[in-house]
UniProtKB/TrEMBL annotation, chain A:
Protein name in the entry: PRELI/MSF1 domain-containing protein
InterPro entries linked to this entry: PRELI/MSF1_dom, Slowmo/Ups
Superkingdom to which the source organism belongs: Eukaryota
Native source species: Champsocephalus esox (pike icefish)
Domain (PRELI/MSF1) ranges: 1-172
PANTHER family xref list: MSF1/PX19 RELATED
GO CC, alphabetical: mitochondrial intermembrane space
From TrEMBL, chain B:
GO molecular function per UniProt: phosphatidic acid transfer activity
GO biological process: phospholipid translocation
UniProt keyword annotation of Disulfide bond present: yes
Pfam families: UPF0203 (PF05254)
Cited InterPro entries: MDM35_apoptosis
Source organism phylogeny: Eukaryota, Metazoa, Chordata, Craniata, Vertebrata
A single GO cellular-component term on record: cytosol
Record family assignment: Belongs to the TRIAP1/MDM35 family.
Top-rank taxon, per record: Eukaryota
Keywords annotated in UniProt: Disulfide bond
UniProt protein name: TP53-regulated inhibitor of apoptosis 1
Catalytic activity, reaction form: a 1,2-diacyl-sn-glycero-3-phosphate(in) = a 1,2-diacyl-sn-glycero-3-phosphate(out)
Organism whose genome encodes this protein: Champsocephalus esox (pike icefish)
Length: 176, 74
């Protein structure tokens, strides 16, 4: 089992960041995400918005790799639950893979909040628990996955920034 | 962005546009009344649930509740 965590600050207010986070896909940094669907959405008694989403990812795995992994499917799926609290200004997002679970489990948690030292910017705390199952190279592969997650996290932050800047351009054009 | 069910993509986009507008202009500003997206969500959901069954995607038991229904805290 490998636990990985990181923090990142976006130089935008919380509302701007989470509007972008809710519309994160598609973006050029995450081309492997090929489908996003909302499975369920509801408000709880405290006025928080819960969303359950399904993400489809396509890795373009060659046939032989798929044969080794024992899967006929080319797409892997991730299920995600997010909670947006507009009063407390918190967005929490948890995700887990629901395919290839006999091989690997990646559980991620993201928390977006205004930065405690500067309410005009947003801090993202991100952590993952990675478990590779049933292989003697487990801890080595977990290490590799953690490195991959670091690289992907950076892409994820760039993706949010890209969405924000894209929206700013759209707003400028609309107001002309 | 596409839906997991190819036939659902247009419905998904229609719902997403409605939701994104409501989210930005109402929800985040403290106005939670009157979700305008219920109809488009229902249409979209029917399609997605069918696609999930057809593709045998192991989604864990999230029953379709639709927006604005109170859910017990998990």
């Amino acid at each position: 089992m490998k636990i990985w965590s990181t923090e990142h600050v976006f130089s935008y207010p919380w509302e701007t960041v989470i509007k972008a986070a809710m519309r994160k896909y598609p973006n050029p940094m995450n081309p492997n995400v090929v489908g996003v669907d909302v499975l369920d959405r509801s408000l709880d008694a405290e006025g928080r918005l819960h969303s359950h989403r399904l993400l489809s990812t396509e890795w373009g795995l060659p046939g032989i790799v798929r044969a080794i992994l024992g899967t006929n499917h080319t797409q892997t799926y991730v299920q995600e639950h997010s909670i947006v609290d507009p009063e407390k200004k918190k967005m929490e997002l948890c995700s887990t893979n629901i395919t290839l679970t006999n091989l690997i489990s990646v559980d991620e948690r993201l928390l977006y909040r205004p930065h405690p030292d500067n309410p005009d910017v947003t801090i993202l705390t991100q952590e993952a628990i990675i478990t590779v199952k049933g292989l003697s190279l487990g801890s080595y592969l977990e290490g590799m996955m953690a490195m991959r997650m670091s690289a992907n996290a950076i892409k994820g932050w760039d993706a949010i920034e890209w969405i924000i800047k894209n929206s700013e351009r759209e707003n400028e054009r609309a107001s002309l | 962005m596409n839906s997991v069910g190819e036939a659902c993509t247009d419905m998904k986009r229609e719902y997403d546009q409605c939701f994104n507008r409501w989210f930005a202009e109402k929800f985040l500003k403290g106005d939670q009344g009157g979700d305008p997206c219920t109809e488009s969500f229902k249409r979209y959901q029917r399609c997605v649930q069918t696609a999930i069954k057809e593709k045998d995607i192991p989604v864990d038991g999230v029953e379709f509740m639709g927006p604005n229904k109170d859910k017990p805290e998990s």
